[in-house]
Design brief:
The protein is mainly α. The protein has three domains: 2-135, MgtE N-terminal fold (Alpha Horseshoe); 151-268, CBS-domain, CATH 3.10.580.10; 285-482, Tetracycline Repressor, domain 2 (Orthogonal Bundle), CATH 1.10.357. 64% of the residues lie in helices and 5% in strands. The protein is built from 23 helices and five strands. The strands form two sheets. The protein has a three-stranded mixed sheet. Helix 12 links the parallel strand 1 and strand 2 (177-181).
Length: 494
């Protein structure tokens, strides 16, 4: 990580230079190029070149420590090319320097034949470590933790620990935090390198270590690591078993990757897109179409119920066709109201601010906010509907005006009734949307689903159905209350 920060990024001119050096076989200059630039920058530029050029780069450069780090940042297709085209000896040296967590991620994405071919190049001891990491689910801490950390005995002196860091520290994921364990590998304490440097050399690390530290289980959700690291401002988080055995660590760069992945996944789910594992530019059109179509088909089925509701209230629409004009605004507004709340609640759940202990308070808060919001919108809507009915915004036919006069005594009375129907529907629709949208994310969490599923198009589609039911029920109740028998009873939804 220190090397990444020290070296400068590759610029566009340098990309062309690397390409030219590779195609002209200027091997020494390629090796010097690799020394001059950072791991991440080199990986990004190799990803912009062809797979053959990436393989050529890996066959020329001999700094396998750096190549192992670069490999972890390559696109999947470039990794496959390197694995298949690089000779076994070089690839074995390369694999030895790929971090365990990154190597596990690569292996799990391979088919069985390719995986077995690569595993044959890995020593049995490391293969056992990789196997233990691979047994954890994709969304768990165990899937992203690394076993490359520095653990020492509590009996070691500060000087001995510092000497050990100089000797083996380069091979570890990080040495910013030293972990103190007993002979049974139970985690006793931690000590930051920064604080260790100011301790007396003859002091035992067991006497200066911190015994008050957070840890996490390997089967915990990955998002839990982001919450703990943010809460305690940690660069490294230890992963321990039920018996407090130190199994691995999570570093801040792992946490950043999780945040990016989770945010991307939430955005896609909120837009009714099935998330995929491959980057956008690497995803084929067929896979994109499949990710789009899955939710669109589901929403299409759900929206069928909206048609059923409208057909069931056909009598009301035939009597007052103007009611149809307000359906889009009502549906959109109530759907948006629900989406506002579900997004707010989902995000608060993701950050750890909301949980099962305070969900009732959150639901109450949103319900009260929904009532206030609904009242404001309903009052504004009442005036707005009257404006629409008295201007060319809406086409109110002479027949409709005659219906107003015959049923309600005057055109103004008819307009007031229509404005009242729409406004009352807005009030109940927005209030229900806010309440429902505050409950559904918690329900999803209880069912071990991603709360982000309960936002965006899904909540909008659900609210379309409920809003139509509310709208027509209010319409019939008000009109029938003023003039009983005006609208024939609707066909019940069964």
């Amino acid at each position: 990580m220190e090397e990444i920060l020290k070296q400068e990024p590759v610029k566009e001119n340098d990309i062309h230079e690397l390409h030219a050096l590779l195609v002209t076989n200027e091997n020494e200059k390629v090796r010097q190029f690799a020394k001059d630039f950072s791991i991440v920058s080199l990986a990004e530029e190799l990803n912009s070149l062809s797979e053959n050029e990436t393989v050529l780069f890996f066959s020329i450069v001999q700094d396998y420590d750096k190549l192992g780090e670069i490999f972890a940042y390559l696109l999947f297709r470039h990794k496959i090319a390197v694995a298949e085209e690089l000779d076994s000896k070089r690839f074995s040296l390369l694999l030895a320097n790929v971090p365990n967590d990154d190597l596990v991620d690569f292996l799990t994405d391979l088919n069985k034949n390719r995986r077995e071919k690569i595993l044959a190049l890995i020593p049995a001891r490391r293969k056992k470590i990789l196997s233990s990491l691979a047994r954890f689910g994709d969304d768990t801490i165990g899937s992203i933790m690394t076993t490359e950390y520095l653990a020492v005995s509590p009996e070691k002196t500060v000087k001995e620990v510092l000497d050990l860091i100089r000797t083996v520290g380069k091979d570890q994921e990080t040495v910013r935090t030293i972990f103190v364990t007993d002979e049974g590998n139970h985690l006793l304490g931690i000590q930051s390198l920064e604080e260790l440097m100011f301790c007396k050399e003859d002091e035992k690390i067991g006497d200066v270590m911190s015994k008050d530290f957070p840890s996490i289980s390997p089967i915990s959700d990955r998002e839990e690591a982001t919450r703990i690291c943010r809460q305690f401002d940690l660069p490294v988080l230890p992963v321990v078993s039920r018996n407090n055995d130190l199994l691995g660590i999570i570093t801040f760069d792992d946490v950043l990757d999780v945040i990016e992945e989770e945010n991307t996944e939430d955005v896609l789910k909120q837009a009714a897109i099935a998330p995929g594992k491959t980057p956008y530019l690497e995803t084929r059109s067929f896979r994109l179409a499949r990710s789009y179509a899955i939710w669109l088909v589901i929403l299409l089925v759900i929206n069928t119920f909206s048609g059923m509701v409208i057909s069931s209230f056909e009598n009301a629409l035939l009597t007052f066709p103007v009611l149809v004009s307000f359906i889009p605004a009502l549906g959109d507004s109530c759907g948006d109201a629900g989406d506002q709340t579900s997004s707010m609640v989902t995000r608060s759940i993701a950050t750890g601010e909301l949980n099962s202990k305070n969900w009732f308070k959150a639901v109450g808060k949103e319900f009260l906010a929904g009532i206030i919001t609904a009242l404001i919108v309903a009052v504004f809507n009442f005036a707005w509907v009257l404006l629409e009915l008295n201007t060319p915004i809406l086409n109110v036919t002479p027949e409709m005006e005659q219906t107003f006069v015959s049923l309600f005594g005057s055109i103004l009375n008819g307009q007031l009734v229509i404005a009242g129907i729409v406004s009352v529907s807005f009030f109940f629709g927005i209030a229900v949307a806010k309440l429902l949208a505050s409950v559904l994310p918690f329900l999803a969490k209880a069912l071990h689903l991603d709360p982000a599923v309960m936002s965006g198009p899904l909540i909008a589609s659900i609210m379309d159905i409920l809003t139509l039911l509310l709208y027509f029920s209010v319409s019939m109740a008000i009109i029938d209350g003023i003039d009983p028998g005006t609208i024939e009873p609707f066909v019940a939804l069964l």
